[in-house]
């Protein structure tokens, strides 16, 4: 009887893992690409829809009129300020992914989490400089929690499944199953076992594969392979700690900006001011709005002038801190990559930026060992 019961438990856990991966896969369809392309008009949305953005972003942004896009950015500030203020005032208390993993008995509220994710996608589509990768992680974790409670898993099993769901959402959006599994283990669970590792890999792989059924097997960023001189290793050794320190300072600055947010009348006012600043700057620097996928790809392919890289590095940091101080939510993954990438472009131009990409990304992860979730302000 005990053997049969053990086999039944293993089967239930396997079903939970498979269902979590299947539920996380379509998140990329709704939150990664199609929702923003079909719902938010404007220039920056068109850039997302155009898959050749990585080649033509810079020239296209300089050739399009900016006033319509600026008004869309201001509208995004109004949506962000009033949306999150009303959600905090009238919605259920929001439970972050980290809180759900720490205490599986306190589930993520479906309505609040979904609206919170939709607000992130809508505001990024309207020009917010923040990323959109947090929303799929939250929806993946929400689906995993529902599956765990439906199948009546134990507390530790539920914790593992929620972490795997968050990693699966990341894997689905960026088409990176291994990174999604590592995110689940090293960032969310902070523990290792063969069973947890297998669950993380399976959920991320299934989610990434499910997402490719509708959107194709395409990489988010494209790297150009080239032969590197041996002297590049010395540059990598010297630049790694410097860029890692920059990433650490980036995290400290963004955390400080978020800690000053108040869920009262200040949120719509400061959000509108922050997005208005972004709208004004976008008239002169059209590369600032959006989650930054286009400029990131150009930086990787050595397609941005050095002077423009330096200016964008400073201005992007200013607008990110401004909208975070206002209360807008969103991811900082792409922004952290861009910070490391553009910093490296400013510090060394001896080789192509694509050749430096591995060192930049590695330094970012070294400087950001944990994805610190935004503080819960929904009361």
Automatic annotation (TrEMBL):
Q: Does the keyword section mention Transit peptide?
A: no
Compartments (UniProt record): Membrane
* Superkingdom in the source lineage: Bacteria
Recorded GO molecular functions are:
chloride channel activity
Where does this protein chiefly localize? Answer: membrane
* Listed transmembrane segments: 12-31, 68-87, 160-185, 232-251, 263-285, 305-324
How is the protein disposed in the membrane?
Answer: Multi-pass membrane protein
A single GO CC term, please?
chloride channel complex
Report keywords, A-Z: Chloride, Chloride channel, Ion channel, Ion transport, Membrane, Transmembrane, Transmembrane helix, Transport
A Pfam family found in this protein is Voltage_CLC
InterPro entries associated with the record: Cl-channel_core (IPR014743), ClC (IPR001807), ClC-type_chloride_channel (IPR050368)
Q: Does the keyword S-adenosyl-L-methionine apply?
A: no
What is the name listed in the Swiss-Prot or TrEMBL entry for this protein? Chloride transporter chloride channel (ClC) family
Which organism is this entry from? Answer: Klebsiella pneumoniae
């Amino acid at each position: 009887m005990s053997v049969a019961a053990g086999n039944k438990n293993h089967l239930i856990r396997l079903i939970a893992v498979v269902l979590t991966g299947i539920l996380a896969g379509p998140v990329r369809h709704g939150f990664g690409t199609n929702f923003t392309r079909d719902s938010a008009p404007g220039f920056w949305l068109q850039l997302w829809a155009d898959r050749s953005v990585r080649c033509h972003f810079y020239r296209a942004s300089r050739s399009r009129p900016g006033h319509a896009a600026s008004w869309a950015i201001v509208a995004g500030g109004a949506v962000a300020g009033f949306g999150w203020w009303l959600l905090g005032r009238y919605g259920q208390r929001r439970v972050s992914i980290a809180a759900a993993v720490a205490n599986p008995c306190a589930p993520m509220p479906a309505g609040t989490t979904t609206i919170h994710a939709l607000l992130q996608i809508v505001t990024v589509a309207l020009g917010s400089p923040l990323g959109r990768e947090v929303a799929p992680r939250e929806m993946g974790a929400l689906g995993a929690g529902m599956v765990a409670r439906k199948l009546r898993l134990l507390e530790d099993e539920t914790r593992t499944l929620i972490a795997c769901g968050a990693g699966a959402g990341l894997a689905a959006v960026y088409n990176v199953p291994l990174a999604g599994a590592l995110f689940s283990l090293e960032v969310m669970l902070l523990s290792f076992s063969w069973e947890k590792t297998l669950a993380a890999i399976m959920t991320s792989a299934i989610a990434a594969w499910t997402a490719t059924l509708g959107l194709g097997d395409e990489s988010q960023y494209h790297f150009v392979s080239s032969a590197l001189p041996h002297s590049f290793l010395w540059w990598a050794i010297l630049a790694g700690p410097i860029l890692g320190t920059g990433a650490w300072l980036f995290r400290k600055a963004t955390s400080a900006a978020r800690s000053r947010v108040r869920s009262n009348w200040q949120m719509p006012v400061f959000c509108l001011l922050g997005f208005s600043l972004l709208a004004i700057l976008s008239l002169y620097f059209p590369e600032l709005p959006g989650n930054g996928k286009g400029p990131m790809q150009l930086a990787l392919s050595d397609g941005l002038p050095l002077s423009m890289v330096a200016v964008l590095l400073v201005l992007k940091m200013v607008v990110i801190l401004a909208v975070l101080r206002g209360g807008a939510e969103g991811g900082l993954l792409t922004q952290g990559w861009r910070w490391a990438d553009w910093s490296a472009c400013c510090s060394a131009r001896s080789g192509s930026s694509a050749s430096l990409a591995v060192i930049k990304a590695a330094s970012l992860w070294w400087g950001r060992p944990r994805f610190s979730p935004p503080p819960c302000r929904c009361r």
